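INFO worker-7 received task bundle
INFO bundle size: 2
INFO processing item 0
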Amino acid sequence: MYQDDDQGMDDANRAQKRTDRLFNEMMPTLRWLTVRQQKMWRPPTDVFETDESVIVKVEIAGMSEKDFAISLSNRNLSIAGTRSDPVCKLSYQQLEIPYGHFRTEVFLSHSIDRDEIRATYENGFLTVVLPKVKPYRVQIKESTAQEEEM
């Protein structure tokens, strides 16, 4: 009887190992399907400011300048594009780099000088510099007696 219990445990261990092996073999495929089913992803984005500007920095390697669509509507900055997989494989061993459509949006708490916005792409980082609108100072003129009568 003791020997039968050992045999049962051996069978259970073998079955568990087979199940684990099958699961591990299928995991890259399942992960690939999950990532591919996502319609859009958001790249890591930092936002910081200086006295003069708001700076948005997006980590997005493998792109070129023409691959980005950057727009500003009211105080909402939108950065979008598509990162293509340069080597489309049928089977991945590991897939952690997202591909496909992406979008990141940043609400800006300051008014921006639209004519002075600059964007650069270097070493896998897109940097957008958005200069703040400088406050307009209204000059007060001394009134003359003639202006007061009007």
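INFO item 0 finished
INFO processing item 1
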Amino acid sequence: MSVRRSPAKPYSRPTSQTRDSSGRFSRSSSPHAQMAPTSRPSSALGQHINQGVPTPAGTSANQGPVTLDEIRDLLHLLGNAISDLNRRVSANEETTQEVRTMVKNVSQQVDGIANKINEPRTPEQDNPV
């Protein structure tokens, strides 16, 4: 029975060439195992692999098989998030309507004051100086 090794040799021992006393090169093996270099580019090191939809705290973003309970829990979380967003949108719509009503009332009051200022005055309405 033979064991087949991958070409990357994930835990290879690097060898180094040194000269012995006669001037010949000899190979010596490092006593410590070295991991093979990563296949990801150096610019991607330290970056998260999965940068998609964030997962709730305490859960992992595994890519393996899931259970029906996990799917049910996820659907429950999504349903709650949608309900929360609907409540926020409704509150914003109510606030927006209230602001529009207030702006309309203030605009009408300003128009009323402007009309009074622009009305012609008779001499007895003038205030004496």
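INFO item 1 finished
INFO post-check item 1: The helical segments are 68-118.
INFO post-check item 1: DSSP finds one helix and four strands in the chain.
INFO worker-7 idle
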